Amino acid sequence: MRTVLASQKAVLLEEGYVRNAARFHRLTPQNLDAVRTGLSPRALLTVWPDLNPDVGAVLATLPEERSAEFVWETQGGTIRHAVVDDTEYQELATLVVDARAACALPVYLDERHPLLCAALPDSDGVLRARW
After folding, report:
1. CB 131 within 8 A of CB 43
2. pLDDT in tens, 102-112
3. CB-side exposure of 83: number of CA atoms within 13 Å?
4. How far is CA 25 from CA 38, 46, 61, 113, in A?
5. How far apart are CA 32 and CA 5, in angstroms?
6. Rounded to 5 degrees, what are φ and ψ at 81?
7. Which residues are 16's β-sheet partners?
8. Share of the chain above pLDDT 90, in %
9. I need a labelling partner for 32 at 20 to 30 A (CA). Which of 4, 43, 68, 117 fits?
10. How does pLDDT run across 62-110, given as a tens digit for each residue?
11. DSSP letter string over 106-130?
């Protein structure tokens, strides 16, 4: 992970910790160790490019007639996400009006191209997970 961060200021970490549930973390070299200690055992980790500070531009690139996972950082620093389709874009724009940064991730597996994927082993170093 440090290698990925060495080439970028920050990245977005998706932590899949139970079936159909995820948390997002914005990783920087300064908070890497703190985030690592808070990750759930046996988590599936997916690394994405950093959030874009131009939230309006991200909203403008949402796909027509398809769903996307919209991820945004609130003014308080909390990372939130929602799966939306074109019928919900207006409501989403209102919801994220004060967001610091955002990105849109594909929801369809054949369109997902993260920077890196990994699985978090248990504390004894053994990987015991099912996805």
Report:
1. no
2. 999 999 989 99
3. 8
4. 10, 11, 22, 18
5. 9
6. -155, 155
7. 22, 44
8. 71
9. 68
10. 998 899 999 999 999 999 999 999 999 999 999 999 999 999 999 998 9
11. E-SGGG---SEEEEPPPTTS-----
